Automatic annotation (TrEMBL):
It comes from Patella caerulea. One of its GO terms (cellular component) is membrane. It is found in: Membrane. Gene3D superfamilies: Rhodopsin 7-helix transmembrane proteins. InterPro entries: 7TM_GPCR_serpentine_rcpt_Srw, GPCR1-related_rcpt, GPCR_Rhodpsn, GPCR_Rhodpsn_7TM. One of its GO terms (molecular function) is G protein-coupled peptide receptor activity. This is G-protein coupled receptors family 1 profile domain-containing protein. Keywords: Membrane, Transmembrane, Transmembrane helix. Residues 64-348 form the G-protein coupled receptors family 1 profile domain. Its main location: membrane. The chain crosses the membrane at residues 52-73, 85-107, 127-148, 160-180, 229-256, 287-311, 331-351.
Length: 399
């Protein structure tokens, strides 16, 4: 089958759903076509974006996200929030790392003009599509967990000390990775690859051993249903619902910050400077996480829209966007997603004093700051619940 892949999480899958749905409408599967990269990507952008820009962004992400993990795992930085941020940093980094061999092997060379060699077929699908989709899915769901946790901190401070603990954050992270893996597990078994000798695309009068993709018998029983279930699941639970949910959560957090600012001014008028300082620090932390979620939404929404357009086109046989245009939009969506990964490091540096100080001490030595009031990153909210005032600092809540 001639695939043009769709999900940008694997950073290389673009129109697979469309071709799979079209082919599945045949009572007898069409003759297999050897896999060719230029069937999946617009050649005029593929080399510069996937061959040069994307590898640079992946290497930058490896550096920045490794530093994020090192800093956040320092003793003075450990918290439930930072546990989730470490999980997100690892997911984002691995989403780019796994396709990197494909970027370098094909897009950075002239090999993309040739059929994919048989020895690379499984590696191509696993590294460029299946595995990155798992980590990108995990990153999306961890972002949701981060927003929920922060909302509990801000609006339900008394419950935060029970629900929002480091062990719980670790359990949530593990559960997210397991469920994300299970959500993509069928992809690893849906097809096999077989060698086929074909005329070279590059060298005249030469042949190469490419590969054809043959779907498993259980998929061929009703490929239309299988593909519809799989991609509708992705549209709903990996894109549409998470993005919509995060828009609502960000709006609630912004509203909570405004309420907290009013409360802070009241505390200042009552000369309660210590509580006012904690509330200010909490607002700074919330603002930083709102920025992280906002950046996530900025790059994920275009991908979600493209997924929705694709699945609507296939379900109702409507040509909403021309295939070449959709390929072009997808490759740029991939680029923007990769670009967002290292930016979180700079958000942390710009909006967290304790992160900056801990990061500096990786190079200059010295004791990292432990005072939680000193940090806008670790101090949790001051609020009221059931008529009581709660001041949450670090991992504890003091009444």
């Amino acid at each position: 089958m001639d695939e043009t892949a769709l999900e940008m999480t694997g950073v290389m899958e673009f129109g697979e759903m469309q071709m799979a749905a079209n082919n599945s409408s045949h009572a007898i599967p069409p003759l297999p076509t050897p896999l060719h990269i230029l069937d999946k990507f617009p050649e005029n952008y593929a080399v510069i974006i996937n061959g040069y820009l994307s590898p640079i962004l992946v290497f930058l992400t490896i550096v920045t996200n490794s530093l994020v993990c090192i800093v956040l795992l320092k003793r003075n930085m450990r918290s439930p929030t930072n546990t989730l941020l470490v999980g997100m940093a690892i997911s984002d980094m691995l989403t780019g790392v796994f396709p990197l061999p494909i970027f370098l092997q094909f897009f950075a060379t002239d090999r993309l003009r040739e059929y994919i060699p048989y020895r690379w077929c499984y590696a191509y699908m696993y590294l460029a599509e299946y595995i990155p989709t798992i980590f990108h899915t995990a990153s999306i769901w961890l972002t949701m967990a981060l927003a929920i946790q922060r909302y509990i901190y801000v609006c339900h401070s008394f419950k935060a000390r029970v629900w929002c603990t480091i062990p719980n954050a670790i359990l949530v992270s593990i559960a997210v990775y397991v469920i994300a893996t299970l959500s993509q597990l069928s992809r690893f078994f849906e097809a096999s690859f077989f060698p086929i000798e074909v005329s070279s695309h590059v060298h005249v009068n030469q042949t190469v051993v490419g590969c054809v993709q043959m779907y498993a018998s259980w998929v061929l029983l009703d490929m239309k249903i299988y593909m519809s279930i799989y991609f509708w699941f992705r549209v709903l639970f990996i894109h549409l619902i998470p993005c919509s949910f995060l828009v609502v959560m960000n709006a609630l957090l912004i509203y909570a910050m405004r309420v907290a600012q009013v409360r802070r001014m009241q505390l200042l008028r009552q000369n309660k400077k210590s509580e006012s300082k904690k509330l200010k620090d909490s607002n700074c932390t919330t603002l930083m996480l709102v920025a992280v979620v906002g950046l996530f939404l900025l790059v994920e929404f275009p991908l979600g829209i493209l997924m929705i357009i694709m699945i609507i086109s296939n379900t109702f046989d409507i040509n909403i966007i021309e295939p070449h245009t959709l390929k072009t939009l997808s490759i740029f969506s991939n680029l923007f997603i990769l670009l967002s990964y290292p930016l979180n490091f700079f958000i942390y540096c710009g909006m967290s004093k304790q992160f900056r100080e801990t990061f500096k001490r990786l190079f200059i030595g010295g004791q990292a700051p432990m005072d939680r009031e000193y940090s806008a990153y670790m101090t949790l909210p001051t609020g009221t619940e059931n008529g009581k005032t709660a001041v949450t600092t670090g991992n504890e809540t003091a009444l």
